[in-house]
Each structure stands twice: as C-alpha cells, then as structure tokens.
Amino acid sequence: MASVVSSQVLYCFFSTSEITPRFRLRVHSSGGTSKESNAISWNGASLNGEKDKKVGGRIGSWNGSLKGEVKKKSVKDAISSDLDVLWDDGYGTKTVKDYFEEAKEMIRPDGGPPRWFCPTECGQPLQDSPILLFCPGIVGVGLALTLHHKALGKVFEVRCLHIPVNDRTPFEGLVKFVEETVRLEHASSPNKPIYLVGDSFGGCLVLAVAARNPEIDLVVILANPATSFDRSQLRPLLPLWEVLPDELYDAIPYLLRFARGNPVEMARVNIEDRLPPRLQIEQLFQNLIALLPHLSDSVDTIPRDTLIWKLKLLKSAASYANSRLHAVKAEVLVLSSGNDRLLPSGDEAQRLKSTLKNCTVRHFKDNGHTILLEDGANLLTVIKGTGKYRRSRRIDVVSDFIPPSMSEFKQGYDEVVGLLRFATGSAMFSTLNDGKIVRGLHGIPEEGPVLLVGYHMLMGLEVYSLVPEFLRERNIMVRGVAHPVVLRERQGASSPEFSLADWLKVMGAVPVTASNLFNLLSAKSHVLLYPGGAREALHNRGEEYKLIWPDQQEFVRMAARFGATIVPFGTVGEDDVAELVLDYNDLMKIPVVNDLIRDATRDLTRLRDKSKGEVANQELYLPGILPKVPGRFYFLFGKPIETKGRAEEILSDRENANQLYLHTKSEVERCIAYLLKKREEDPYRNIVDRTVYRALYSPLHEVPAFDP
Fold first, then answer.
1. CA count, 13 A, side-chain hemisphere, 189
2. How many helical (H) and strand (E) elements, i.e. helices and strands, does the chain have?
3. Acyltransferase: present as a keyword of the record (predicted)?
C-alpha cells in the first residue's frame, strides 16, 4: 500500500429500512485517490444494508471499498511538516455531552461487523505522522477520544475501532482483525512506530496484539486496562446477572451510570481555570445539569443478553491478555485513575509496570474509569510529557518535538507555575542593537539560531518564568537543555503522577548533551543554556550571583559553527524569595542526611569531569531554604553578540574563542550588577504592592517596574 488518503463521508446509522445522516466521519481507503459516495462499505459491511464479500470467511483488514464515482485528488500539497507555536489543539471545544449525543446514534444496531473509522475533526496530520489505532471499551462505540480528536489528528493518522452493539465476534477474532491492520501498516511503513491505544477492554485487545507481534515497533497506551477484571467488582456479579429477574435487571444501568466515571471531572472539561471561581462554579453546575441525563443512555440501549455477552467477552479478554504479558516487547504507557469504581486501576498499573519490560505509569488521582472523557488527562500532552512521541524507531529531540499548544500553555502558565509566577511577578528587560535597554523582550532576535546564556538562580527557579514569557510576549519557543536528572522520572514513586519534569518536556526541555545542542542549533532554534549548570543552581551560601562557569569554552565554538547569535542575560531575585540556610557543606556534616545524599548521587550521570574546574562539583541535593515574603524576579538580556561570519576565526584560534567566552561572561555579570542596583528603584518590588496594583489597574505582566 503506497499511500493512504481519506475522503469525507456521512456516517449513517440504520433505523429499520431508513438511512439517516447523523454526523460526519471519515473513512480511509487504500490507494492514492479519494472516493466519495453515499454508499459506504466498512471492512466488508456496507452502510446501505448490503453485505460485502468477506475474505477467507472473516472480516477484511481494511475499511472496505467506497462505491460510487471516483474523484482523483492529490493531498500531497495540503500536508504540513510542522506546527506553529501555541497552535490550537481544540481541547475543551468538544465536551462529554457531544460524546454521548454521537454515541447514542452509533450504538444502535446496524447489522455490520467491526470496522475502522476516522472522525473528521482529526483533519490532515503532519507529514510522516505515525498511525494511531484506538480500541474502545466494552460498549464498543469507539468515540472515547472525542475530546482528543483534533489534537491527536494533527500528529497522528487516527483510526478508531467501532464494534457494533450486537456483534458477536469472539475476542480472538477481534485480535486477528486489529492484528491484520497492524501488519499491513507495518508492511507499508516499516520504520514508523504504530500506536495502539486501548481503553478498558481495548487495553486487553492491544496488549494481545502486542504480545503476538513482538517484532513490530509498537507504542501501547493503556487507559485503565481491564486486565484487572478478575479483581474487579464486576467479576463476582456476572453469574448473578445471568439469573437476575427482569424487573431487577432494569436497575443495572443506573448503577453503572455512577460507577463508570467521575461526572464532575467530565463536566470540567471546557471550564477555563482563568475564570473567577464564581463563574467556574456556575459553569460547572450548568454542565452537570446538561450532562446527567446522558450518563446512562449508552447502557440503557444495550439489551440484557448483549450486556451479559460483553461481560463474558471482557472476562475472556482479560484472561487472554494476562496469559501473554510475558511476550509483550512493546513500549507501554499506562494511564491509571485513582477514583475508578469499576476496576482496581491503580494497583493494576503497578502490576503491569513490574511485569512488562518497558512500562511507564502516570496516575491521575481525581479521575474515574472513563479517564479519556474527563478533565485533567489530555492524551497528547501525556504522550509528549512522557517522551513517547516519535516518528521513527528512535526519538529525535528536534524533528519529533511538538510545540506546546495554546491549551497546554494556559495550563502550564496558570496551574503548573501559576503560584510561582504570581509570587515573583517577573520583570523582563532586553537590550536593543544600539545598546538601549527597554522593558520587554524586543531586543531578542526573532530568527535563530539564538543561544541564550546566563546565570542559574538558586534551584533554577527563574526557568519557570523565562520560557513562558518568551511564548506569551514573542511567540518564541525556547528549548532548554537541562541536567538529565531533572527530566528523569522520580524513582521509588508507587503511583507517579504527571509531574513538573513531564511539563518541562512538554515545554521543550531536553537533556544537556553535545549532540542535542548541535541538533537544536542546526535547526535554528532558540536554545537556553546555563554554563554553570547544577553547581551554580545549587550554590553554597555566600555564592549568590556568582558565576561558576567551566574553565573551557564549551558553548562558544558550537555557537560559531552555526553562526548563532549569543544573548547573555542576568537574573536576580533569589534572595528576595528565600534565604539559603543549609547548603551542601552544611548538610554533609549532618549524620544520616549525608548518607542519604551520597546514596542518591552515587549512580548519577557526571556531565563534567574535574578538568572543567569548580563547576564539575555538581552534587545534586535539596538545599535547606527559608521562604521570605516574595519580592520580584528581574531579567536583563544583554546586547546580542553575533558569531555569523566569524566561524573560521573562532574555530581555528582558541585565543579568539576565549576572548568571546570571557566577553560573554562579563556581559552576564554586568547584567546582574545592573539589576541589583536598579531593583532598588522599583516601587512594586514587594508582592503586596504588585497585588494591589494588579487588582486595581492591569494584569500581572503589565505591573510597572523601574525605568531602565
């Protein structure tokens, strides 16, 4: 299959003999043309009621044929290769109410077999995007990604599996059906990963496919997988439901309504955190009132014999998948809920992590069983934050990076670092080419490559203001290079939640290595580099605002090679928010504590050896600090230093490189000295004064500072 294109069609459901269009979906066909017709066939089942020919007595592996007139149309020119910074991922524009309204139509019996479909909201993915196959829960509608369609459709070719409500395909038949699609995709693009997303029952399905195909590059994502069915509340009830009187059976849908998910989290999906609390509560109540009538619709329409069949199917699926976990070689990401009333998902995630060879877990303590339909679990954000997105066998920090979307920026800006941002009220200054200092970031070159080189404040607190401000004010994506430990999953966490380290990766941070710096500069990125590294960020008492840089020019020659513009900058304010009371030397004098530090740092990666000078003494620890009533962070970006056209003189002469290195260092020191002096003139240095001004006059970023 040379290529796969799509055509927009009307999905129709059957109501006796009538065919009524309900909502728009997109069906894929193999080949290089798109076909449009009102008579559609999905994997052997025509939507006009006709039965298509089956291959080998079972369901075909593709979306069947589209009958009718054929219109040849090239889509090559419409495919984009990248996304803009702060792109619209559509998260929050669709709600759970939309899901229930669409699912109510799709759940109706149509007499057809299982089939793949692609919602039109997914649109056209980026060039060379991998395929994502979604396998649904036991109801089988296939619309559980409704909230995520637009975002996922930008970076994946999304296909969702629909299993009709009255379908009786056994579990192994479903496994073979998905497996055929996986093998066809792998044959078409052997160097691309294939993403398999399984929700509840679908988790058993994708694990079974992964176990049967260990040689294929698969990324398996499980949302509260039903592999824990034998330990769930449903398992002992199954024999009772088979003999339950009809008048008592009618109550089951109402019980399942409250067990399936968290209605509050469902209703919160489209509520902006920037709204005042009163408006948030009002909108939450309105959403709940609109949502509650829909919660049992999908279960109410399932006949008794069908529900019992599906529960038995779930039992066999869990047994099949669990017996083959040892054969799973795929990369696995498990999303577990802390408020799942149907399955013990938290415990199951830990079991899978200890059983599978390459498994990552992210726990969402407030979510229920239907995590993909609830607030707080943006699937694409989780994939990015856990480092699971790639277009080939190995992840590339440049070509595989997806810039943050507007919804991610708002969440990170307001929720993740919102309190720190409010407390420190950062004031940004930059220097124009003529040497004039101005408020804001107007002096930063728009075109890369740009290397931002500066001072690392205590515990790197300034990073959480710097990167968001570049996005907010200049729409510039700054890629920070960080110590690998900062981006590593916290060891020993029984239920790791989506953490600050994950958010740093979402916002573009990568481990600091020569190859990563090389690749970022070659891609003309804006790169944030701290030559002082961890040693400077974890400095000792009395070393505030002291540059602890290596003796050698680690970054100057790299910048010159690509003609990058070096922008030196200084930051001050750490002494306005906290006092360092226990540094490394103090902690190492305390029994037990010193052993804990040695044990924690024994196996850490050493980025520099002793030849680099004092900066190589980069023991990682948590210093003892005493918080203060917050002052303010100040940033000054110095006059840009051009290296374009100077590659030969800098790369061939170490003395020239050293002079540029010392000049950059002195500019950082000058920026720090300038800010330390000028901040005394700021009438809004104190948080109280800034808060009053903000309440009366303007947003936080518009609070005045000193005149430069």
1. 19
2. 27, 24
3. yes
Q: What letter would DSSP give residue 253?
A: H
Nearest to 283 by CA among 417, 418, 97, 101: 97
- Lookup: tokens for 122: 């997914």
- Here the tokens at position 181 are 């699609």
pLDDT band of residue 3 (cuts 50, 70, 90) is: very low
DSSP characters over 320-370: HHHTTGGG--SEEEEEEETT-SSS-HHHHHHHHHHHSSSEEEEEETT--S-
Give residue for tokens 């970054």. 555
| Nearest in space to 392 (alpha carbons), one of 44, 78, 664, 129 | 129
* Integer Cα distance of 207 and 213 in angstroms: 10
**Tens of pLDDT along 618-651?**
678 889 999 999 999 999 999 999 999 999 999 9
Distance, in Å, from the CA atom of 453 to the CA atom of 672, rounded to the nearest integer, reads 13
Between residues 438 and 16, which one has the greater pLDDT? 438
Least confident window among 72-76, 464-468, 619-623, 693-697: 72-76
Question: Hey, what's the torsion of the CAs at 402, 405, 411, 412, to 10 degrees?
Answer: 50
| Average pLDDT of the segment spanning 696-700 | 80
CA–CA dist 553, 556 (Å, integer): 6
Work out the average pLDDT over 424-442: 96
Measured CA to CA, the distance from residue 245 to residue 286 in angstroms comes to 37
Integer CA distances (angstroms), 485 to 452, 481, 605, in order: 22, 12, 8
- Which residue, among 201, 211, 18, 216, has the nearest Cα to 114 in the 3D structure? 201
Residue 325 C-beta-side C-alpha neighbours within 13 Å: 21
Entry pTM: 0.83
What's the pLDDT tens digit per position in 392-410?
Answer: 999 998 999 999 999 999 9
CB 176 within 8 A of CB 152: no
Amino acid present at 635: F
Q: Which two tokens stand for residue 691?
A: 């808060």
| CB-side neighbour CA atoms (13 Å) of 558 | 23
SS3 for 495-556, per residue?
CCECCHHHHHHHCCCEECCHHHHHHHHHCCCEEEECCCHHHHHCCCCCCCCCCCCCCCCCCH
* Structure tokens, 690: 């800034």
Reading across the β-sheet that carries 634-637, which strands appear in turn? Answer: 437-439, 427-431, 634-637, 565-572, 450-454, 526-529, 478-482, 510-511
Dist CA 169 CA 163 (whole Å): 9
Buried b (16+ CB within 10 A) or exposed e, 514-523: eebbebbbeb
Q: How many CA atoms lie within 13 A of 321 on its CB side?
A: 31
Q: Tell me how far apart the alpha carbons of residues 422 and 612 are, in angstroms, rounded to a whole number.
A: 37
The helix or strand, by DSSP H or E, that contains position 219, with its residue range, turns out to be strand 218-223
